[in-house]
Amino acid sequence: MDVCANLKTPYPYFRVMKHYFYAICLFLASCGDQSSTELSLKEGKSFKPKYAQGFEIIEFDNKKQIILFDLENPGDTLEVIEISQASQNIACLSTTHLSFFDKLKNLHAVKAVAFADLVRNSNARAAIDNKKIQNLSSADDVDLEVLISLKPDWFFVYPYGHGSYEKYTSKGIRCFPVSEYLEKHPLGRVEWIKVFGAVVGQDSLASSVFADIENKYLKIKDENTKANGQRPCVFTGSEEGGMWYAPPGNSFQSILINDAGANYILNDSVSNRNIALPFESMVDLVFDCDFWGRVEYSTEALSYDAIAQEDSRFTKIKAFQNKQVFYCNTNEKDYFGDAIIEPHHILNDLTHIFHPSNDGYEFRYFEPVK
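The structure corresponding to this sequence follows.
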């Protein structure tokens, strides 16, 4: 649960005013009659997400505007994208995006994806194996020739960590920056399905899918809140180069742990990135924590013997001694794909881990180490 980036808190009023400025500029640039522009703006319906911070959709009679906000620089707008017709020719830089299209029953709109060998979604995997979705990757980069030959309506990219996309835009490829992975609320990540739905003309289905997932998530959360039982202490993270890296208290991982009826050890921390602690300090901090959660890629099931071999100091931690370590193996579970749009299943997993029952529950993403 330690592998994803986290957000800064946005400034809602400034963002709202700024996106209207962008919308006005866009219309003034495309229309000669200022009065008709003002009329169109008045007729537009704004759809603001309930949890997500990275987008807003304004719908007009014959088009939609998707305003994408810069989650790393609160108050700034990344781009204003205009959608005048549903797209059925899309390429994706991230394998995560395929799960959104699959939920919308529109995988056929995706013609190519980078790093296709990493795709875990079963329907997308079948489409790749049957050559219905091409692999965009060439070594560690995108095969630009393949991308250009596809002439996609949109190339879905992630806007951070890869610098400029001028090498695509200069070839006439329109890039669509998607930053769902920076949303700090689990339901905020799911809510990006409304953006995907707007692009492929499945707005109603997207809203319906989101509402269903939201209801399931909140039902589990409410049940945990009403239980008023003991809330165990939980920590997570990973070691690298003598440092321990863990998500802060304002992260989606922290929200999931707390909504599952536990207390995250770093609840009081606030950061835009993972908390870094010297390994020795981490051991002291989490020494008496009840549970330890891990996300890792492995060809074998995780065992306590394997954990002990990593570092003998792990064996002294309460969570290890009480056999209360849980994990998600990304080699077997689609943690970076389907799990993003199924936070209710992750929440259910965590609830049954922190508060075990004998109801025969089958874990989907996270499970106890056996």
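The CA atoms of residues 40 and 60 lie 7 Å apart.
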